[in-house]
Write a structure and sequence with these properties.
The chain is mainly β. It has one domain: outer membrane lipoprotein receptor (LolB), chain A (Clam), CATH 2.50.20.10. It is 14% helix and 45% strand. It has 3 helices and 12 strands; from the N terminus they run H-H-E-E-E-E-E-E-H-E-E-E-E-E-E. The protein has a 12-stranded mixed sheet, sandwiched between helices. Strand 2 and strand 3 form a beta hairpin. It is globular. The termini are far apart. 24% of the residues are buried.
Length: 221
Amino acid sequence: MKKLQILLILSGMFFSAGYSQVELTKDPAAKKILDKVSKKVSESKGIRIKFTYTTENRQNGYHDSQKAYIFLEGKKFKAIIPDIEIISDGTTVWTYNKVDEELTIGTVDTSEVSVFNPPKLFNVYKNGYKYLLIGEETINNTEYYVIDLYPEDTESSPYSIIRIKINKATNEMFYIKTSGKSGVDYTFEVTEYKSGMTFPDNLFKFDKSQYPEDIEIIDMR
């Protein structure tokens, strides 16, 4: 059963009606919680996350959910999503599309808030967003803080709102939902979170010998 369900519903209705009606600020209570999450991630030697990644198109009713993994160590990461594998050494990003046998090479986009840039997920609030602690929620006997983020630059941001749920006991991020102005929403929901892990260095390095010889390479650097 959800705690403060009425508060969450009213809050969502109020802000969806137009948060320009109020002067949003960087809520100190929300910042304190978000700082704990960021600090825990930065101090962890290595993090492995199993999650569900959902795409929803509000315009045509499209819905798709996939199970995936993220391995994170500082700014380095590896994401394994069905048909896609993403590797980054903190500077360069290699994205391998298994279906098309296509490899795209680029640099880390520090503005992207998605599973394609995991370090950003845990620090999104630090730049370009105002935030508000709107309540608490209980899911499967676990209590979570619920925090909404709103872009400071509403014209250029692709998102109207980002909702985050954080485990009160562990200071671990459980849920992130980005609501896109285009009508497409993405949800990242953790099913398993393990920190303090040690990963081999080559986990975050692209080794071409491990992929098809005729792979198409698109270098966008």
